[in-house]
From TrEMBL:
InterPro entries: AA_transpt_TM. This is Transmembrane amino acid transporter protein-domain-containing protein. Keywords: Membrane, Transmembrane, Transmembrane helix. Its main location: membrane. It holds the Pfam family Aa_trans.
Length: 467
């Protein structure tokens, strides 16, 4: 028993390891010495962590869940959602465990370097940045849709996208996640309010806005659907995308005051997110059937769409702000890590920081405005990059920490064998979803381009008419 107790105590981080030094400057394995003169990168509390986690999850993805249920059917849709929730919750849990064991980890690129070397760092780092940059572009378009809806297309859509880029980039340049956490609460509250407004509206109205307005109408929801492989895998990818905030949890746990509270925050986040997804998906799809809009905020008619997007606008802004901040922060730390400029108020510090966030904002804006098939392209990036960073690395992380330890034992424990099988399953499931989802997205891009050629670059057209 004493040996077991000593081993457990060895796994617990000391105050100096997690940055909780009560006298003098704190030292962090990623940021180095943290003093009062510079930004405090270790200032996210428990509830701030919950807000940041939930905001990276509940954003653009939740609005496509009712449409995914329409493709799969109500029962298969809920089952798929629960399976993906279970796998991603374990993946998210592994992030906290891995951070405690490897305090030098900040982002997923550090994980790639630790497990796979220089190539792993570059591949994981590129995937992280390109994924969140595309999501930032999607957020800018989401804001332009909201502005068009609220103002009844009061200005050229290209102008609204510029406004979204400028405001998102400005707030995304706030330096620490600790200072952004209170904005995350505002954004989370607003997006949830807008979603529940639509949910209540579709329940009390006679029929959805896009349904036939003459005669008796009965919701045509399906308990079990029979989609084609392409439609099914696209729907599954949409649900996986709704949980694809996972790679953001690396920087979030790295900026917590006490990473030991990470698991508690994670359980609150995933429990709340899953409950919201199931409620929204089931209720909206039940009342709208095949006439559900995607995004779902347009399902209750023009007036309710204006109200819903009015409440959603701050939430979409906070999402855009966060997904600009995340890749900018990763690049910033990559450039200045190990130097005094990382946590010091120097000219190099500020020029580098604003250069990173402004650069990310400009690239996201150009991608969102210039690519004619952007809506389908974001689905492609989500399937390719989002899935890749939410499943496979976490299976590899468990194997990295535990494979040799268990393999060298003559009598391998049943728990170790199970976890090897589970980690391998997560890796294989991630590979399947990545390849199949990418295929489905490519087919959708081809079909969409044949149908309408995509949207025009820097278009002034009202992009809220179809939602």
């Amino acid at each position: 028993m004493p040996d077991i107790k000593e081993k457990v105590e060895d796994l617990q981080p000391t105050p100096s390891q997690i940055g909780e030094v009560h006298e003098g400057p704190a030292y962090d394995a990623v940021f180095g010495e943290i003093t009062e003169e510079g930004p405090n990168y270790r200032d996210v509390g428990l509830f701030g962590t919950v807000a940041l986690m939930m905001k990276t999850q509940i954003g653009l993805g939740v609005l496509s869940i009712p449409a995914a249920f329409d493709a799969l059917g109500l029962v298969p849709g809920v089952i798929v959602l629960l399976v993906i929730a279970t796998i991603t919750t374990w993946s998210d849990y592994m992030i906290g465990i891995f951070k405690i064991r490897h305090r030098e980890i900040y982002g997923i690129d550090d994980v790639g370097s630790l497990i796979f070397g220089r190539i792993g760092r570059e591949v994981f780092g590129f995937a992280f940045c390109i994924y969140w940059i595309f999501v930032a572009g999607s957020g800018m378009l989401g804001i332009s849709i909201a502005l068009n809806s609220v103002s009844t297309h009061g200005a050229c859509t290209a102008i609204f996208v510029v406004v979204a880029a400028v405001v998102g980039g400005a707030f995304g340049s706030i330096q620490t996640l600790g200072r952004l956490s209170w904005l995350a609460w505002i954004g989370l509250t607003c997006i949830l309010t807008s979603i529940f407004i639509v949910t209540i509206a579709v329940g009390v109205q006679d029929r959805p806005a896009s349904a036939p307005q003459d005669g008796t109408w009965v919701p045509d929801y399906k308990i079990v659907a029979h989609p084609s492989f392409t439609d099914a895998i696209s729907a599954v990818s949409s649900i996986a995308f709704a949980y694809a905030g996972t790679p953001a949890f690396f920087p979030i746990v790295s900026e917590m005051r006490d990473p030991r509270k990470y698991t508690r925050a994670l359980l609150i986040c995933q429990g709340g997110v899953t409950a919201v997804y199931i409620t929204i998906g089931c209720v909206v799809y039940y009342y709208c059937g095949s006439y559900v809009a995607s995004p779902a905020l347009g399902s209750a008619g023009p007036t309710m769409k204006k109200i819903a997007y009015g409440f959603a606008l701050p939430g979409l802004l906070v999402t855009t702000m966060l997904v600009i901040h995340l890749p900018g922060k990763l690049i910033f730390i990559r450039i200045l890590r190990g130097s005094q400029h990382l946590t010091g108020n120097t000219v190099i510090h500020w020029v580098t920081w604003f250069g990173c966030t402004v650069g990310v904002t400009i690239i996201a804006y150009i991608i969102a405005s210039a690519i004619p098939v952007f809506d389908n392209l974001i689905s492609l990036i989500g399937a390719l990059m989002g899935t890749f960073m939410s499943f496979q690395p976490m299976g590899c992380m468990w194997l990295y920490d535990n494979w040799t330890k268990g393999k060298n034992n003559v009598r391998k424990s049943s728990k170790w064998v199970f976890m090897v099988c589970w980690s391998s399953f997560v890796i294989l499931a991630g590979c399947f979803l990545m390849v199949a989802g990418t295929y489905g997205s490519v087919v959708s891009i081809i079909d969409g381009y044949k149908a309408d050629g995509g949207s025009a670059a820097w278009s002034c057209a009202d992009n809220s008419n179809s939602v």
